Amino acid sequence: MTVDDRPTLSAPDDDPWLWLEEIEGTQALDFVTRQNELTLTAFGGKAYEHDRDLLAAIYDRPDNIPYVSRRGGDLHNLWKDAANPRGLWRRTTLAEFRKASPAWEIMLDIDKLAASEGEDWLLSGIASTPGSSRAILSLSRGGSDAVTLREFDLVTKNFVADGFTLPEAKGGVDWLDDDTLLLSSAHGEDMATSSGYARTVRLWRRGQPVDQAEVIAETIADHMVIYGSIDDTGPAPRVWIVDQIDFFNHAIWLRDAAGNTTKLDLPTGIWMQAHGDWFAIKLRKDWMAGGRTYATDTVLGISLSAFLSGSRDFAVLFEPTPRRALQGLFWAAGKLVLSILDELRPRFEICTPSAAGWSRATLPGLPQIGVVDVWTLDRHPSESNGDLLANVQDPLTPPSLLLIERRVASPTVLKQAPKTFTADGLVVTQHEAISIDGERIPYVQTGPAGESGDAPIYMSAYGGFGHSVKPYYNASLGKLWLERGGTIVQANLRGGGEFGTRWHDAGRLAGKKLSHDDFAAVAADLVRRGVTQPRRIAAQGGSNGGILITNMLVRYPERFGALFCTIPLVDMRRYTKLLAGASWIAEYGDPDKPEDWEWLQTYSAYHNVKAGQPYPPILIATTRRDDRVHPGHARKMAAKLQAMGYEAWFYEPEAGGHGYGKDNKERAGFEVLGYRFLKERIGWRDGD
């Protein structure tokens, strides 16, 4: 018997499993149905149902934190629980929100809406404008990125009968005035880029057919997306237009109230935030301006009017060090807030501009360990009075939602999340592994104190797109892994943003393989330290982390006992041809260019899998409504592994989008299925 191991590196498009890319194809859905039945039969049952219901009950707890944003004088929240699995859009006041049990006004019951219209609706976005009684709601089918837009009356709490509506497409809107929308949507003929996102920015006036809306900006099909946003923080409304060339580079245009458009003379690889007559940028590369060279990751500030008049007299607001990096920046009532990781510890600084220069201060009253996230309370910058929200937690301490009021010295606790698992005897420790090239790779370990030599380990990481992984409180892992005696490990791989651009770039393009080496090094370090053995290490990764997990399968199989690969990219030869794949070329490379394929083929596990290898068991899971990462990646990898005789399981629920389910019970079921599989395959009997 011969093993059909196509596609091969020499003929990467000769693929016998190509039919599995037909998302709704009859043969493909038959495959999915059979695979789901096999997987649920093997890992479902009473133990699965018990843990799923246990976890869903945690997600549905009435004392979970209702996260809010302020629009006008009200706090808005989207709430899901067992009685409202799709969610309630509701609002209250800040005074009421401070109470233990606030009274809420229901704006929209999404479950009732879905039932009445026979649609799989979820609410994914709300576009409103200060002082207006109208909003545009983005309704998603089953969690997909593509949305249907519909105008909603905030007073009557009903959809507007003859209001703005737009069929399903990727993109959204902002309000220019009560009768005009700024539309950045892929809807319409030739309106989508090759990545599937908006190719134009249009002015869509009330009562006007959308195909007659005025195009005020457009990009070429090979760019990722173009979009516009309204800025009403200045003396007159203005529009920022961003032509996103790729994931990390974009050109920025300013359109004034008279319709005049000016391109800003800035490098393309920046983060930029503007407010009133000031703006700040974070550089992705070294940049020379005004006779001075500014280093990568430096943050600069300047008056917008002065800049447009030719001044390049920037103020330096932040300078990085090798392990101190900016994580984000935003404005609140004329003050610029900088979020920083310093040796992975959270820091927040405030920079305030004036004609006399920029003043600097540290945001007081926040812990300098664990995880701290800070953002503005107000949805619209023009309404901000400077109030901020902060979320504080660590792997063993549930989140606290804090209010940082302007001119109030100390934050106040608004809400405290419940403890969802017993943390007695557990400790959080930080360690570093040495990767294949000598780089130090940080990781956080949470579990029982001491080294047993046989600990059941749950490892996870991401390592891509400059995204920083932080050790959050995880209710599901806490309840179903830590509380039952296991240990969890979270690694900070290159490709992330924990230490800035140099850390990201080291794990990008050809360096992506190093990111995978980093993860394998952490697994080896756990064994070296006497924590566990390879057969007891279970690892999970999703999306970009799916590339990671499939590379652990084919490159480092001896270091793991079982693998859980979710909503993954796998086929790096065809990824740019599938859904939003072309938008990630800046992270991975272009497989149609021979020089890029030279490195892409080294971590395209779909092409590197071979018969007769000691691969550990793997469960590959996706969702049919994921319109970001094509479900064909997961389907094809599972089918190919099975055809080669490997233990490869597959699971694909119908809904969920680029996530684990459209409601709390679906999400819990997806997660628990993975946990049950991993536990069984690493030989861990956790008491059930």
UniProtKB/TrEMBL annotation:
Keywords: Hydrolase, Protease, Serine protease
One example of a Gene Ontology biological process annotation: proteolysis
Domain Peptidase S9 prolyl oligopeptidase catalytic: 481-680
A GO MF label: serine-type endopeptidase activity
Cellular component terms (Gene Ontology): cytosol
Entries under PANTHER family matching the protein: PROLYL ENDOPEPTIDASE
Protein name: Prolyl oligopeptidase
Native source organism of the sequence: Bradyrhizobium daqingense
